[in-house]
Amino acid sequence: MYIPKFNQIQDRALLIEAMRAWSFAVLFGPDASGAPVATHLPLVVRDEGEHGVLEGHFALANPHWKSLAGRETLVVFSGPHSYVSPSLYVEPKSVPTWNYIAVHATGTLHLIEDATGDPAANFALKDALLKNLIAQNEPAYADQWNDFPIGYRISMTSGIVGFRIPISRIEGKFKLSQNRPEQDRKNVYAAHVAGTEEQQELAAWMNRLKRPGE
Known about the structure:
34% of the residues lie in helices and 31% in strands. It is built from seven helices and ten strands. It has a six-stranded antiparallel beta sheet with strand order 1-10-7-6-2-3. The chain has a four-stranded antiparallel beta sheet with strand order 4-5-9-8. The mean pLDDT is 94.
């Protein structure tokens, strides 16, 4: 990802926070023929290791997991984004742009499966993955899932393939008008605060990452 220095974010805590905030990500990697393929998945971001660990699952019917297993995989997290009008700039000779937040995480994808192939152990591993996703997205659903007959839960988990990706490389691009003069940034901030939900999210990040003294 092309990242000018003024847009680069390296703070580990901020990157983990961003990935968790926008955890519906895209996994990129080749299919069996070598052609590039993308799969959209909800992920759990674990605060472990040097850069964090990603967990999730594919549908068993999705062949992409077979070609990604054991291979380096790019995972893209897309945050809020918004058009920025040149009318917000002091200099009339200005052009439009787009502000946005994105995090690219790369690591080798490992399938989550019991080494012995034991069905009960594999169910337990997949069940734990699903419970982590439930805890992240709808904690109140946990009791309902646990109350389902075990046969139903086994049937449901038999249709998924779990994975973990220890992140080996991570890039964060927070394009928030950092390269613009102070008055331009103030104008963009004010417009975003009064704008859409995504613009308001960007404004909040502009405020958090503003330069000392602003």
